[in-house]
Amino acid sequence: MGFFSRLFQPRPDGLQTHSDWSRLPDTDASELVLFDDEASKLMAQFDIDAAIVTHERWLPWLGEVLQGARDERLRPEVVADDGCSELGQWLHGSGRTALGHYPAFDMLLRRHRYFHQQAAALITHAEAGDILMAQQAHKACQHASRQVVLLLKELQKGLLRTRRPVLGR
């Protein structure tokens, strides 16, 4: 029973999870379970591998900002909005509809939001010349990004595990 697999269990009462993202659910649940049709539909509408690759591109961009590069597309007020990315749009839209009842979904959503907040802080500090604070924000971005990627991979693993092979294909 893996750490992340315990996080993807829905609450028995169907309500949203507690706002403290760091708490584990109080169950002995072992894995994310979606019905085959739900898993197939989710896999068809959102490419998790592409979302991971796209999300991982942020860190080199932010590293360049830390080194003094300026990019007009990386404005703090835009970057701070966690809905500005493809992953954020999915998390706030169809992802929430499909997976919002799983405790780990809210953790994923909050980690993604925190990543964007720290990325905006990094840009703001770098533009102000406060390199020490920018470096600190960059470390927070790296940590949050690793958590987002791990949660996405665990989600993907759970979805793939629930899909049954179709005979004759």
Whole-number tally of structural domains: 1
SSE succession: HHHHHHHHH
- What is the number of E strands? 0
CA-based gyration radius: 18 Å
Largest sheet: none
Provide a count of the helices.
9
Structural class: mainly alpha
Considering DSSP H and I runs of 4 or more, what fraction of the residues is helical? 55-70%
CATH classification class: Mainly Alpha
Write down the CATH topology: Four Helix Bundle (Hemerythrin (Met), subunit A)
Query: Globular, elongated, flat, extended or rod-shaped: what is the shape?
Result: elongated
Write the CATH homologous superfamily: Aspartate receptor, ligand-binding domain
Architecture (CATH level 2) name: Up-down Bundle
Average of per-residue pLDDT values = 78
Q: Into which percentage range does the β-strand content fall? A: under 5%
Low-pLDDT regions: 1-5, 19-33
- What's the end-to-end separation, in Å? 31 Å
